[in-house]
Structure formats: C-alpha cells, structure tokens
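Support request, priority: normal
Reporter: lab tech (M.K.)
Component: structure prediction queue

Hi team, I submitted a job for Large ribosomal subunit protein bL25 from Terrabacter aeriphilus yesterday, and the status page still shows it as pending. I've pasted the exact input below so you can check whether something in the sequence is tripping the parser. The sequence length should be 226 residues. Please let me know if I need to resubmit or if it's stuck on your end.
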Amino acid sequence: MSDKTTLVAEKRTDFGKGAARKIRRSGNIPAVMYGHGTEPVHISLPGHDTMMALKQANALLTIVIDGKEQLALAKDVQRDAIKPVIDHVDLVVVRKGEKVVVDVAVHLEGEAAPETVVTLDNNTLQVEALATNIPENVVISVEGLQAGTQILAGAVELPEGATLVTDEEALVVNVTQAISAEELEAELAEAEAEAGIEREESDEDAAEAAEGESEGDEAKAEGDDA
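Reply from support: The job had stalled in the queue. We restarted it manually and it finished. Here are the results:
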C-alpha cells in the first residue's frame, strides 16, 4: 500500500473538552501529531476526509500544516460509542525509508475440505514494513485443507517487504472436523446434566413419548387377550 491521502490541517491553540467539542461541532476532528523527538502538535483535521481516509487500516497520511507536508500514521483512533463519528486521532510521524511495526488483517480465501470447520485464531498479524509500503492484508489459502491442519504464524507467506513480528508459533488457522447435529445435541445435554439443568420437554419429545406409551399399551392389551 503506497497511496497517500492528503489532509490539510490547522494548528489548534485552544485545548480542553470544550475546545474539542467546538471543533467537532464545526465538522472537524481534533488530533495530535508526535514522534521522532518532536514536540506534539495539536491540530484540527477535516472531518469527512479524515473519516474516509481512516476506513483503510494503516492508511499513510500526508498532513499539510502551514503549507508543509508531513507523513503520518494513525496510532489511535477514538470513536464515539454511539454515533458513527471520530472523537480524536493520535498521529505518529513517519519518514520515507523508515520501517514501522503494524497490525495487518488476515484474510482467508478458498474452501476447506467437506465437513470441516475453519477457525481464524488470530485475525491480525504484527509485521514490520516500510511506512510507505504497508500491506493491506495477509492472504491465507485454506483451499482443500483437511481436518487437523494448523497454520502457524511462521508458515504464513507475507507480502514482499514485510517481516513477521508476531511469535512464529502463534496459531493463526485451525481446521477441525465438523460436529454432527446429533453429537452437538448429546454434548449439550451432557453439559446441562453436569450443571444440574433440567430441560423442558419439547412438543416433539412429548409426542414421541406419547406414541411410545400408546404402542406399549397396545402390546399389553394384545398380551392380555392372548
């Protein structure tokens, strides 16, 4: 990923919750940019453009302040708990040729063998890559994999230029045998019995029980007649 999004920012001179609310009311987003031993710079970012840019994980941003450009990555994005808006952004300064450590999403493709279940134990991998060439994702094929197959982080093929930071022994993909409905029902019943939970008899169970009792009564009547 080498495309950069340019955001024109304004320096902030007012701070605090009241100032931040005022910025958000105007359609902008309060942010702070720091790194490489420089003093933190408090800025205001254009709301819509920033939200669109941050839809892409690890997006490389070109922040323009007073006509000067600075490359940055979003280190922390604070989002409103209810509204689909961003409350604040922490940006870390990066430079061309510099390597950074980021979390990259794992994407599965293909279909495993029939009657198997594929579990993604780690949905991201931490990798080191050039700030100007951060991979969008890591792709793992599960095509035809049989039950019992496990893929560890060290076996994952990474995009060119990226090196693994995550522990090589970390489990990423686990392929197991699918459980049948009967086995699932039996396991659930066993777990409930161990927990002392009594099941309510379903209409279907009641009907089967009644049918069994009816057949038993008929057999007894036939025995008596004989």
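The mean pLDDT is 86. The chain has three domains: 4-95, 100-177, 181-225. Let us know if anything else looks off. Ticket resolved.
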